[in-house]
Amino acid sequence: MTTIPQLAPPPAVAPEQDLPLAVLQKFRLIIAAMQEQYRNMYRQSGLSGAQLWFLKEVGKEPGLTLGQVAQRLTIHQSTASNQLEKLARRGLVQRIKGDTDRRVTRLQLTPAGHAALGRVTGPTRGLLQETLLTLPRDELVRLDHSLAVLVQRLEPWLDDADQAAHTPLASLLNPSQGGD
Predict the structure, then answer these.
(1) Which of 20, 22, 116, 179 could be cross-linked to 50 through a Cys-Cys bond (beta carbons 3.0 to 4.6 Å apart)?
(2) Average pLDDT of the chain?
(3) Host H or E run for residue 94
(4) pLDDT above 90: percentage of residues in the chain
């Protein structure tokens, strides 16, 4: 796992009237950091963040099924299937039929897939995901609760919340990279 730099303690809470804007600015900073990381990953590998995370999971545990990869990435199986097609066409992932059950297809990286992962500096899973993994559990629980409240208030504007929740962040932030 990539080490995320430790930061200074957060500044004091903004005055009441400035607090919503201070929170909004933090969202902007989070998104800007993510976009920069995804741009760097794309420049280094020619792959989207979602594709690199797919490769990382398959590289970490060769022999996963497509369903297992989708579950680990928290994306729909159809999205994972689309990613697999693109990665397989580029010669980065290969499908291997099971010895005992030919219906089961296992995935593994090709040498080119390993090389693509090796070209990327920083977290290949995505900066936000890696950062969340480093938060102490109590902070993560508080953040999850606060974000759940915010999402609940945004639900009227979410046409398909389930689809949005299972779309890779790299695709949401930069759809032109074709992360799906």
Answers:
(1) 179
(2) 85
(3) strand 93-97
(4) 52
